Amino acid sequence: MGNARALVKRRKAIRNIRKITRTMELIATSRFKKAMDRAAEAAAYTRKINEIVADLSQSDLTFSHPLLEQPAETKNVTLLILTSNRGLCGGYNGGVLRKANAELKKMKSEGLDVTVDASGKRGISSLKFEGTSIETEFTQFEDKPSFEEVNEIADRYLADFVAGRTHRLVVAYQSFQSAARQSPVVETILPFGDLASNETSASGVDYEFLPSSEEILAEIVPAAFKARFFKCFLDAGVGEQIARMVAMKSATENADDMIKDLSMKYNRARQTQITSELSEIIGGAAALE
Amino acid sequence: MIAATEIRLVLVTPETTLLDQPVKGLRFPLFDGQIGVLPGRAPLVGRLGSGALKIDTDSGSETYFIDGGFAQIKGTVVTLLTNKAILASEIDASAAETDLQAALALVPTDDAGFAEKDQALARSRAMKNLGGR
Fold it and tell me: Distance of CA B98 to CAs B93, B94, B103, B105, Å?
């Protein structure tokens, strides 16, 4: 009987785990939808910014702004790594960290002075385990990063960059291409690169610029940077939920398989037991005759 | 060409599109003072200040607090890009007062600090005034 009992116990435990993974899958699905909606809504802001930039570019204006220019020397580099606070999301954190570590190694071999900032408990503990010293840790970002929180960090990086304390800002995160396709990437977001490189073409409208196109440009570059920076966080949030959804889906399926397998083993064990008991009884009865 | 008779207001923050509706007219703060926009306004791109955004619609008027950003007027569409937009009735006046006191207590030492203080003052004052109502 011992064997069959043990199997029942094991099956029960797996059923419980299945319940948990199934629930987590459902939660991740709903969170993913919400995060996705947020990301889609946030895209409107970026689109509008691009539109204004395109409009600015048609007025006689050279795009020069401290954020757009590569500093004369590149020595201090900041690497920001966006990971999740919670685990059980498959290869999400592993992927981002692998990419980030490769980048870190490369930058160090180039003789750069790298400052590492990390968001997410998972990434922080993994980096600490590897002996990477982390300058700033953020753990406040869950699946709904608010612009205000992200903005604070963006402001700090902007100030560092303008003051020349950082010469380059690199972000490692899970970029979102489509619901079925995300990949960990390492992106340089400061210096900002080419602001005017976007598909929106100028509208040909003759605008009145208040106060002037130069001043609008001076303001819009940081705004565009902040929007892009915020998008990194949003993408990371969406990526985390998708990764969790997929991981939990396969966990649930595996649990299903195991339950099936265990049920079969249990039934067999029970049948064997019944058979052996029967033959014992028959044997006993035969002995009495 | 027939003169435009209505305008469409699109209020966008980095997180979401708050408003996208036809309005009769609106007033909002530019960097140096209030501007009013009625149908048929010439195209404009401007920098926003902190203060009250007042919207007149068919069903009455609404007031929002907006905090910096950009305005774009193109054809019949007015787009306001702002970091923060709060409905005036949802502003916490006492929190704004605390912010104002904190801003007043700032002792800037350089140009950036002074600019920051001015901005913080303008923001918290506007918020306090709106929230008090």
Answer: 9, 6, 9, 11
Q: Strands of chain A (E only): list them.
A: 76-82, 113-119, 136-138, 168-178, 181-190, 208-210
Q: Which fold has domain A31-245?
A: Pyruvate Kinase; Chain: A, domain 1 (3.40.1380)
For residue A58, the chain B residues in CB contact (below 8 A) are none
B12: chain A residues, CB-CB within 8 Å = 44-45, 48
Q: How far apart are CA B16 and CA B86, in angstroms?
A: 12
Distance to chain A for B17, nearest Cα, Å? 6
Chain B nearest-CA residue for A203: B74
Q: Do B43 and A205 touch (CB under 8 A)?
A: yes
Helices (H) and strands (E) in chain A, counts: 5, 6
Indicate the pTM of the whole model. Answer: 0.86
Q: A35-72: per-residue pLDDT in tens?
A: 999 888 888 898 888 888 888 877 766 667 778 777 77
B7-87 topology per CATH = ATP Synthase; domain 1 (2.60.15)
Tokens of B82: 């702002």
| Residue spans per domain, chain B | 7-87, 91-132
State the nearest Cα–Cα gap between A104 and chain B, in angstroms.
30
